[in-house]
Design brief:
The chain has about 260 residues and is α/β, with parallel strands linked by helices. The chain contains eight helices and nine strands. The protein has a six-stranded mixed beta sheet. A three-stranded antiparallel beta sheet has the order 7-8-9, with helices on both faces. Helix 2 runs parallel beside helix 3. The longest helix has 17 residues.
Length: about 260
């Protein structure tokens, strides 16, 4: 028996979704598919399903720091993935944690809305993430509605939002899945002025947990040593396949199939 794991450990700080479509379960499944191990730290408990979010409760900072410390003092963590934080206090908590571990690459998914549109934090949480967390991130992965909140541009284009946000972060991936065009345009912006556009066919329907899937996959690809532009492309392609194969497990949005049916066979 091999007792020495070669899988990178990714510290995931996010909320728990009881439907299993988004949040930490999405992180775990997506990272398993990349050959990584997810170490899930619960930041918030939510009451939600595939239709929408009903309520949430952010955990005390001491509990979150204790969870993270238990992992960091035991395992060699290769990267950090941030999801739902939900409060200004939790933003401060995560900033403290990241400043104590500046060597870790971090993917920030600024979760401010559930897939069904319900709020998972006030807009000022997004502004705090912009000011305090994005400067600590390797890359941020907002969808266009989230980018507009972060940039304070309610009708801004991806280019306009990127111009406002790039002073805060090194790399920015703005996804375009919330539009209605035939093709989805996902745009990667970097502070050095380079830009890349990744285009894919728009799938019918709406999906619960696509952003979590993308950000976690990207953290995993970076952890195993893939270069950023290539890692973004790999993560986007993988996420598109999970949506293509998604299942309707409830009465609302489709849930991405992040693991093959024969994964455990």
């Amino acid at each position: 028996m091999n007792i020495y794991s070669s899988r990178p450990v990714i510290l995931c700080l996010s909320g728990h979704d009881p439907s299993g479509g988004a949040g930490l379960q999405a992180d775990i499944e997506a990272l398993l598919a990349q050959g990584c191990h997810a170490a899930p730290v619960v930041t918030a408990l939510t009451v939600q399903n595939t239709v929408n979010v009903r309520d949430f409760r952010v955990l005390d900072r001491e509990w979150v720091l204790a969870q993270a410390d238990a992992v960091l003092t035991d395992s060699c963590v290769a990267a950090v993935k941030l999801g739902m934080l939900g409060s200004l206090e939790m933003v401060d908590t995560v900033v403290q944690l990241l400043q104590a571990n500046p060597h870790l690459p971090m993917v920030c998914d600024p979760v401010l809305r559930a897939g069904g549109g319900g709020r998972l934090g006030k807009d000022e949480v997004g502004f705090a993430m912009r000011e305090r967390l994005l400067p600590l991130a390797t890359i941020a992965t907002p969808n266009l509605p989230e980018a507009r909140i972060l940039a304070e541009l309610p009708d801004g284009s991806a280019d306009e939002c990127a111009e406002k946000l790039l002073p805060f972060c090194q790399h920015l991936l703005i996804t375009g899945g919330h539009g209605d065009e035939h093709e989805v345009h996902n745009r990667l912006y970097s502070r050095d002025g380079s830009r890349h556009t990744f285009t894919c066919y728009r799938l019918p329907g709406s999906y619960h947990g696509s952003g979590c899937t993308l950000a976690s996959t990207l953290a995993g690809r970076l952890a195993i040593g893939e270069q950023l532009v290539s890692a973004v492309e790999t993560a986007l392609n993988y996420t598109w396949r999970t949506l293509r194969d998604a299942e309707q497990l409830g009465q609302g949005q489709f849930v991405p199939r992040r693991l093959p049916l024969d994964f455990c066979s």
